[in-house]
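Researcher: We're teaching a course module on how sequence relates to structure. For the next exercise, students receive a sequence and then see the predicted structure as tokens, so they can try to spot secondary structure elements on their own. Here is the exercise chain.
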Amino acid sequence: MSSISLKEFKTLRSSGVSVLDSRPTNDFAKSHINNSINASINGSFEYMVSCFFSKHEKLVIVCNSSNSAESFLRLESEGYTNLDIFHYVLWDQETSTLSRVKAKNAKSYVGTMKDVSNAEDWKLLHVKGVANTPLKEIITNYRLISDGDVLYCGNGHKSIAAVSYLRTKNIDTTDIIGGLSAMLIEAPDLEI
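Model: And here is the predicted structure for the students to work with:
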């Protein structure tokens, strides 16, 4: 799968075309293009993309060359019809980073945590006292989340997707690396 050029990407981006970053969450957190939304190829990729983007809107998938074909084909098989690929290594402009909370430090953030898992997953397992605000609800009403909230989900994919989306709305949040799975191991004193 070939990438569009940097010039083509900049033209599409400046015209308001949506930008999806399918790289792994850690890669996205370290460096990403402003106003891009992360839906990691390693997570519930198709589900997260469907939460954010219509199947018929123009969409540029930012990815590593190693996952470009998979990203494209998985979305194409879901009915996305207007896709372009842009390889992240071609980007030559300023990038953004995300500060994230280590799972071992999660107990310090319980008061500002929000679980962005689906309601069914939240009912099965969640941090005691933490409310459920599913990703789909955040997209419908992003004001459910406030500056400074710390988001998590089962493995960290939906939470970083939510963080990236909220940044496009000028709401500054963070997530817990590895989500609930990591907290179960690294924060055993946390009530779950």
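Model: If you want an answer key for the exercise: The longest helix spans residues 157-168. The chain has a mean pLDDT of 95.
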